[in-house]
TrEMBL record:
It comes from the Eukaryota. One of its GO terms (biological process) is protein homooligomerization. Signal peptide: none annotated. Keywords: Repeat. This is Potassium channel tetramerisation-type BTB domain-containing protein. It comes from Adineta ricciae (Rotifer). The keyword S-adenosyl-L-methionine does not apply. It holds the Pfam family NHL. GO terms for molecular function: zinc ion binding.
């Protein structure tokens, strides 16, 4: 018993020099004499625990503290040891840890199914945070996500930033070799004044439209040094308004997980069968149809958790609920989101500012996919009627723009139209799912043109298997999430077969694999976002700059 107490003693001293020995803990856990690590009868997971962390009072629940089974932290609060932990004068359990780091930890432990931790952004805090995790017996059980963190050593001073802060500008791309998974390889050295980088990053964070024409040079004296930093970070100039990609563009094959990917669940870092993803470059945000959580999640480019912006009040058909939303798009005019609330058979609009509930704009429709043109006219696919209609605000009927000739595989028919994409000329591209093809209906056309697949279900390059998300570049190349083949294919104009763009490495959860990719989106730089449905994550694939 004495040695157990000794462990506990060394553990609560976050800042002590005593290092907790993992192997001792393991052997103790397996000894019969060791106390039962299951929750003691009198302890409840929703108990509120008041902690004095380095002098600051922090309240949390036992559930949060015991989130990672087998960790020392969990063991401390799972049984009668608790009574032996040191307490302050007011009876609060005292842990000598840095309260800011401890809060950063609790924030993440509050999410169910935590398997990864994000390090704090302040570079000087990353090591202390790791030390704290080690002392609490968490580090070996948890993956510390460092690969999306870029360290920049500038003039001898180190800065740590989320990669996306540096890579998401509407007409510039900071290209830091991104494929490496070893955090150390992310280090970039720039021989310049550290203040200039701060100046740059501050601007990148604050500017509403992050195009580099907005970048302010600190002073004329430093203008050249500032340009050098942009150059060292390889800020590539791109035109902001056009997707600068073509048939020769390739993408880094290993994607980075920008949302979810830590198991199915309803925590704010988790997703549950995401069907679609939509990028809003102006807001530096993506919107995800977190379908089986019955909510829409807004995820800032560099965030490690999302924010519920529609639904999230359980499955149901009240005005504040959604039931398996399958698609979402942004209406700039009214600063709102338009959502296909699939199982409620309605299209709803939720304001982005006042988002306590939505209102129905189209009733009684088996909608699945949505697209909006510059006039805010809405295009909606209908799974049961096998058609796509265009709706002006206030329309009660909508105008037929594709299909509507019953279920079938003729050129004027559709068979389960799901995702849709609208180009500048209001031609509409439709994933005609059960025909395993993508069809294009030019404005006013009476029938479609097959632009991908259409050679039965299969996995050779002429075929698709349950095509989903579809997006088109300015050269009319069609990109399609070939969901059951776990790949993204590109079909150029008039091609008879597609070429592999992403995935194609079998079903799985590696960074170059998918498990039923469903939603697709481009951002302004042409990076591709994939709603990787059964991996419960959104992957981002960077354009290959070279
Ligand atoms: C990373 O950048 C360095 C120079 O900055 C270059 O030599 C190296 O080839 C790059 N690596 C990759 C994988 O792009
Ligand atoms: C980029 O900046 C320029 C200059 O301020 C502005 O005119 C343009 O609209 C911006 N582009 C975007 C996409 O915000
Ligand atoms: C940003 O884009 C605008 C418009 O395409 C261009 O004029 C400007 O030079 C670009 N700025 C930078 C720093 O890339
Ligand atoms: C693609 O590359 C080929 C060969 O380098 C070139 O001839 C062609 O013009 C390129 N296509 C586009 C759209 O840039
Ligand atoms: C935006 O709001 C105005 C005023 O409430 C309304 O008349 C208009 O139809 C709305 N437009 C959209 C796209 O919802
Ligand atoms: C749109 O129409 C114009 C004129 O008909 C044509 O030149 C252009 O290629 C079309 N663009 C697309 C994306 O179809
Ligand atoms: C691919 O599938 C099509 C349609 O079934 C078939 O005609 C073609 O021969 C197949 N090609 C290959 C290379 O297997
Ligand atoms: C990409 O991911 C695969 C599968 O995890 C891995 O084997 C490969 O080394 C990765 N490639 C790079 C360049 O990181």
């Amino acid at each position: 018993m004495q040695s157990i107490l000794c462990i506990v003693t060394s553990v609560y001293l976050c800042s002590s020099s005593m290092i907790f020995d993992e192997s001792t803990k393991v052997s103790l856990l397996h000894k019969k004499a060791a106390p039962d690590v299951r929750l003691h009868q009198s302890l409840k997971s929703h108990d509120i625990i008041s902690l004095n962390i380095g002098g600051e009072l922090i309240l949390t629940t036992r559930r949060t503290l015991t989130r990672i089974p087998k960790s020392t932290l969990a063991i401390m609060f799972k049984d009668t040891w608790e009574s032996r932990l040191p307490k302050d004068r007011n009876g609060n359990i005292f842990l000598d840890c840095n309260p800011i780091l401890f809060r950063h930890l609790l924030d993440q432990l509050q999410l169910s199914d935590t398997k990864q931790f994000y390090p704090p952004l302040e570079p000087s805090q990353v090591e202390p945070f790791k030390r704290m995790l080690r002392k609490l017996g968490l580090l070996k059980l948890i993956v510390l996500l460092e690969k999306n963190i870029v360290r920049i050593n500038i003039g001898g001073q180190t800065f740590t930033h989320h990669r996306s802060t540096l890579t998401q500008m509407s007409n510039a791309t900071v290209h830091l070799n991104s494929s490496s998974s070893h955090p150390r390889d992310n280090d970039v050295f720039i021989d310049s004044d550290p203040k200039l980088l701060e100046h740059l990053v501050e601007q990148l964070r604050e500017l509403p439209m992050k195009n580099t024409s907005y970048l302010k040079t600190p002073s004329s004296k430093q203008a050249n040094s500032f340009k050098k930093i942009l150059n060292d970070l390889r800020v590539n100039q791109r035109t902001h308004s056009s997707l600068n990609i073509n048939y020769n563009t390739t993408w880094v094959q290993n994607g980075s997980t920008i949302a979810g990917g830590i198991g199915k669940g309803e925590g704010l870092s988790q997703l549950n069968w995401p069907e679609s993803v939509c990028v809003d470059d102006d807001q530096q945000t993506i919107y995800i149809s977190d379908s089986d959580n019955h909510r829409i999640i807004e995820w800032k480019f560099d965030a490690y958790r999302g924010r519920i912006v529609a639904g999230g009040n359980g499955q149901g058909n009240r005005v504040d609920q959604l039931d398996y939303p399958t698609d979402v798009t942004v209406s700039k005019q009214n600063d709102s989101l338009v959502i296909c609330d699939c199982r409620n058979r309605r299209v709803v609009q939720w304001h982005r500012q006042d988002n306590t509930n939505g209102h129905t704009i189209i009733f009684d429709i088996d909608c699945f996919g949505l697209a909006m043109d510059n006039n805010d006219d809405l295009y909606v696919s209908d799974l049961m009627k096998n058609e796509v209609r265009r709706w002006k605000i206030g329309d009660t009927k909508g105008v037929l723009v594709a299909g509507g000739n019953g279920e079938g595989n003729q050129l004027n028919q559709l068979y389960l139209p799901t995702a849709i994409f609208l180009d500048q000329n209001q031609s509409i591209y439709i994933s005609d799912e059960k025909n395993h093809r993508v069809v294009k209906w030019i404005k006013y056309a009476k029938e479609g043109i097959v632009v991908a697949g259409g050679n039965d279900q299969g996995e050779n390059s002429t075929q698709l298997s349950y095509p989903r998300g579809v997006i088109v570049d300015h050269f009319d190349n069609v990109y399609v999430a070939d969901s059951r083949n776990n790949r993204v294919m590109r079909w150029s104009k008039d091609a008879t077969e597609g070429s592999l763009v992403l995935g194609g490495n079998g079903q799985g959860k590696q960074s170059n694999q998918f498990h039923y990719p469903k939603g697709l989106a481009f951002d302004r730089q042409g990076n591709i976002y994939v709603a990787d449905w059964d991996n419960n994550r959104v992957q981002k694939f960077d354009v290959n700059i070279n």
